[in-house]
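Me: I keep going back and forth on a fold encoding question. No explanation is needed for now; the record alone will do.

Assistant:
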Amino acid sequence: MEKLTGVPETMLWTLHNRANEAMRSDGVIQDPKAVEIYEAIEYDYQRCFGKADPVHAMRSIAFDSEIRAFMKKHPSGVVVNLGEGLETQRFRLADLQTTWYTIDLPKKLGNRAPLDARLRIVEPL
């Protein structure tokens, strides 16, 4: 994988924190897709980001809860995820069976595509 900097590197930082929390036996989040992606990317997470922090896992849980509440009120609702990066929310909430749209920078979508067989990239207008 090419050297990542700036915005694309932040997607690895949040993944690092979520995946490490998911790998803990007492972790606050269950996120096997984050662990799968984390392990598939050759990157020196420890050197670049240091010890993992549960903050992104806790934030993800809060957003998951809000989406579940919204979908309970609006069963045919649609989720539009802006700046998704390597977030794995739609896998954690797959039981909702809703339509998910991801809007992100082309470089970030290009980095994600090989790791996510369900991602279909539509070129910008």
Remarks:
- Strands lie at 78-82, 99-103.
- The longest strand covers residues 78-82.
